[in-house]
Amino acid sequence: MSYYTIIGLEVHVELLTETKMFCSCSTKFGSLPNSNVCPVCLGLPGVLPVINKKAVEYLLKVALSLDCKIPHRSKFDRKNYFYPDMPKNYQISQYDLPLSQDGFLEIEIDGNRKKIGIERIHLEEDTGKSIHTGTIDKSLYTLEDFNRAGVPLLEIVSKPHMSSPEEAGEYLKELRAILFSLGISDCKMEEGSLRCDANISVNKEDFPELSRKVEIKNMNSFKSVQKALFYEIKRQTEMIERGEAIQQETRGWLEEEGKTIFMRGKEMANDYRYFPEPDLLPLEIDRIWLEEIKNTIPELPREKKRRFVKDYNISNYEATVLCDNFALSKFFEETVRIYDKAPVITNWLLGDISKYLNAENLEITSTKLTPENLSEMLSLIDNKVISGKIGKDIIEEMLRSGKKAEKIVQERGLLQISDEEVLWNLIRKVMDENSDAVKEYLKGKTKALGYLVGQVMKQSKGKANPQITNSIILEELQKKTGEA
Amino acid sequence: MLTLSEVEYVASLACLELTEEEKKIFSQQLGEILDFFRQLDILDTEGIEPAFHSIPLKNVFRNDIKGNSIEHEKALSNAPQREGEYFKIPKIIGGGE
Fold first, then answer.
1. ipTM rounded to 2 decimals
2. What does the pLDDT read at residue B63?
3. Is B55 on the interface with A (CB under 8 A)?
4. Which of A191, A377, A409, A461 has an alpha carbon 20 to 30 Å from A269's alpha carbon atom?
């Protein structure tokens, strides 16, 4: 009997505006707690919110980029609930007339394109930040920082169009790439400027009545979203196999334990008593304003990808990886402008440099490497001043320190040895020490040549010019063949 | 009249604890308020666009320009409890509401 999975994602994105959604307090991250606050965002009585125009513009940019419909009329509503991180005891959000709805995002899985529908995108305000001493259930009390309360937040709700954790991962990557290129959010999941909840149901063919959608929360990276979805597929499949019905519920992802746990059931669902926000006036989005915003939308990742493949002679895969990361693709293009071998740059960016970035969990922009320094290093390799291997050895220091390749090479004495006299001596020594390998070669095992070159590279600490080394060794071996 | 369970539900949403006596009083009073508003039902609103606000204005925005926040000390001055730079609040889960 076969099963199929239905997944929908809800993504919250903090906008990079200067000020909050409904007051002129700064949105700066990392300020002294409770310093970017005012009577409006502290929920003091008698105050009036006023809509930040830029936040609406940012939403419209996203909506247009995701091919959403933008209704002529829209409004804000009050969502009522008690929680200490919302000082007003309600959140200003949008209920039945969101600023946009009904769009789509295209993802690519194994070369196949698939459209994932966007249900709606609306604007709301973020909550404050709670600090619990220990875990939330055992904490004796909680501390509140309202600097984040009122920061503009986009909620992007997908349609339940994804059928695997891989598709969910691609959707998130593509969405983040678009938001990045629009410059409307820094999209840092670890810092909470991008958050994701998932709805998932596993269904048995011909028995969909056994299944209900389960909401999963508390995932703080794209990887944990995928891990949580894989876990849920397994859990729900096993339940169905045991003949149990799946309940509609909300579950929380526990990263360390790698599992989801029950948070609340359907009967505990909140009754938010939405009603139109009386302190704010309705919105009407006119076509002229929309046209103006449309003109500010830059090249989106999928268009950029196609251009990269066409203009730079790199593979579709390479272009995808580069364009999924806005900073990396920008760095790439800046480097191409001063060093014209795009495929070589791509190899370095996606190879050693990405390896370092992933291990250190960094963006290229937070390293000290510049396009100028990278191109200089690549030219040193082209001019045979250093070998490619030395390049690989020094790239990490370049990323860390921002030093030029030439300086590192000098400091570490890594300039490539192209002096044949010096190499000759070294090679004789290596051949003497490895007479077995020499004999092997003479018996016809040509592989031994590679071994000998490797030994020379090792003894010269990677400085030997590989081409010259190769030809000298060959010459020496041929002499010996003649002797034998 | 609201039923007692409706009153209890509304009270729980508002985080209020009511005595049995109060529940009876409110079931009467809330019922009267609802009846008063039901008068609106007799109006024929066929073909009339819904209004979301009583003031005929729209698109009132502010520009994204930083203004003054209130002083940190002032922000915390009304807090019943504080700890360092933070508002201190009672236990959230399992604490008294």
1. 0.89
2. 97
3. yes
4. A191
